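Worked example 3 (structure in, sequence out).
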């Protein structure tokens, strides 16, 4: 769909299937990024707890993720997967201020499930004057309750399984060695057994 400056019609709105994919893919990618970052932080500063600083870093990453991708590309990685993108109600590219407002509105309690209806426009869409459209331009058909629920369930299972497979690979192939190295190096001094030494990983 090209940006025309005309009112976006209902048939161009991204489907519930696309919105669910967007949410799941983006949520899991943000989770992976956060875990990797904290693994590196802990590797360099093992005594640093999560606390307020950890929460602040997590919130910053969450904001930066949406603002970066939706400002530059009008879409997050999840929207790349579902072939959808963010536009204003008139079908044009949103400004940085609009994207910022859209991201702030995501903090509203229960906002993440506000798109779960046949007309899948979330509160962060409504309050910022934006919509997520289907880039394929195909007219959307109303799905029955059973079929729609089945599609959402399949979306959740498939994306979640992929996420856990990626996490297993990261944990056993990357995160665990990163976390264990400082622990093993500091263990002799912690337990008072200085006669033991641990060779550096090559």
């Amino acid at each position: 769909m090209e940006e025309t400056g005309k009112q976006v019609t209902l048939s161009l709105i991204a489907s519930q299937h696309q919105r669910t994919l967007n949410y799941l893919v983006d949520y899991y990618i943000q989770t992976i990024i956060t875990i990797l970052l904290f693994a590196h932080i802990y590797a360099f500063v093992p005594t640093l707890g999560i606390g307020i600083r950890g929460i602040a870093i997590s919130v910053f990453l969450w904001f930066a993720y949406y603002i970066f991708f939706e400002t530059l590309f009008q879409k997050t990685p999840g929207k790349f997967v579902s072939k959808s993108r963010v536009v204003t109600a008139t079908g044009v590219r949103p400004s940085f201020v609009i994207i910022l407002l859209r991201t702030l509105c995501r903090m509203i309690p229960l906002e993440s499930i506000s798109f779960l209806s046949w007309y899948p426009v979330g509160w962060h869409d409504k309050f910022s004057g934006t919509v997520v459209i289907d880039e394929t331009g195909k007219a959307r058909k109303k799905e029955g309750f059973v079929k729609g629920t089945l599609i959402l369930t399949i979306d959740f299972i498939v994306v979640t399984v992929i996420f856990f497979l990626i996490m297993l690979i990261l944990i056993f192939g990357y995160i665990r060695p990163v976390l264990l190295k400082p622990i093993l190096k500091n263990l002799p001094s912690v337990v008072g057994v200085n006669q033991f030494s641990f060779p550096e990983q090559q």
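Notes: The CA atoms of residues 105 and 200 lie 48 Å apart. The chain has one domain: 10-188.
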